[in-house]
Design a protein that fits this description.
alpha/beta; Leucine Aminopeptidase, subunit E, domain 1; Aminopeptidase; 2 domains; 21 strands
Length: 515
Amino acid sequence: MTSYHLRGASPAKTRADAVVVGVVKTPKGVVVADGGEDVAAAFGRSLRPLLSTLGFSGKPGDVARIPTGGKLASPLLVLVGMGPATDDRAATLLAVRRAAGVAARSTANAASVALALPAGDAALIRNVTEGYLLGGYTFGRYLSTTPDAQAGTVTVLCPIARRQEAVAAFEEAQVVASAVAVTRDWVNTPAADLTPSLLAGEIVKAAKGTKVKVTVHDEAELAELGCGGLLGVGGGSSAPPRLVELSYSPGKPVAHIALVGKGITFDSGGLTIKPGNGMETMKCDMAGAAAVTQATLAIAALGLPVKVSAFACLAENMVSGSAMRPGDVLTIYGGRTVEVLNTDAEGRLVLADGLQRAVEQEPDVIIDVATLTGHMVMALGTKVGAAFGDDAVVASLIEAGQESGEKHWPMPIPADIVERVHGSKIADLAQHDWTRWGGGLLAAGFLREFTDGVPWAHLDIAGPGFNSGSAAGHLTGGGTGFGLTTLVDYARGLASPATTDGPVTASGSDASSAA
């Protein structure tokens, strides 16, 4: 078990097995970043030529390990590249988060680590702490040997360690990072071991002992409710669908948000079957449901005065004699009918049920999160999510993402999309059409039909929700937990400047915890 501490000590005098310092690139060469000034002073003029000899460029991901030879109290100095020096706030926060993640993987064998990265305000402290915790994440459930763990003791060095806002940021970061880690665990778990009913059980277990109430609707209750989207998508699987509803109601909420997540625990494409290599990572198609669930639990753990109603729409999209067929008509919760033209566009069908349930809660805003369309991966790549919906809500979500290193790009729903969504000749709406262009926009336009005019945003995380490559920065391979921190920071924005309802707190210059 790793213990975490926040202290105001000098990195040059801190006794740890390794001390980590950031390095940025400037027109005059590489220089030590904020937080590492004492280390640079201890090495003096010898540091820059030493880095030059090592070929250390300071680009993101660069790491240099230097024995200190008594110049520092620590025997080892770990330098981590942060890229170009910049005055751009969002870029700085992201650089710090990435550098902390790299540091976690570069010091896994150390018994104790001190992080002397830029940490001069609450947001930087959060990004250092979350970045380190997330960069050191491992998923070892199916490994015969235990993967490298993080250091036994991790100290974040911070010049404002005695201030209340610093302590709060440090401890809140651990709450959020833990939620992201659980999200990653769920996304990384093979689909056979996390069917809709098993995931519903995990959600119930995670909420036990918290202020979040959970209700699970099984297939019989879904039939009584008339949730045709979930039943249609889940009809081809031997593992029936579930709708999990979560509710967090603080004493004096300043706002009420509804969160809806796509939870396809495995997506074969149904009868419109995917090619074999297109199924390899389809255990990740429940990343949206995992993110909204854990975001709700994190918001409650932080005591934010924001009411949350969350809906995890869980189903497995499989091929069998009972699977829905292209041309079938489903009746969504609330009564509207939808013609199914592509069984591999199933996410919007389960979300339709969840969105209509969310509308009934009369929230101030609805946000859905989904690994929804390959179209958005084609458009934006694998590092950037797409944000659709009401301009004000989208703008607030994009701003929230900047605080926590998640980038979302605003996308339109053009007028012609409405015509395409209403293009069915036999049902109220068409779930899909085979027009090659604008498929992501069509999906968003379809979802909007079920929001009944409530302010709404749709986050398509199909690209950044799962990392098929190697670890980079604070992102490890597999599930990323993308979207969760955006939702938490969005709720923080709604709560500010209101006081919190029982948040995690501590006092003193040495705020410590164990995780």
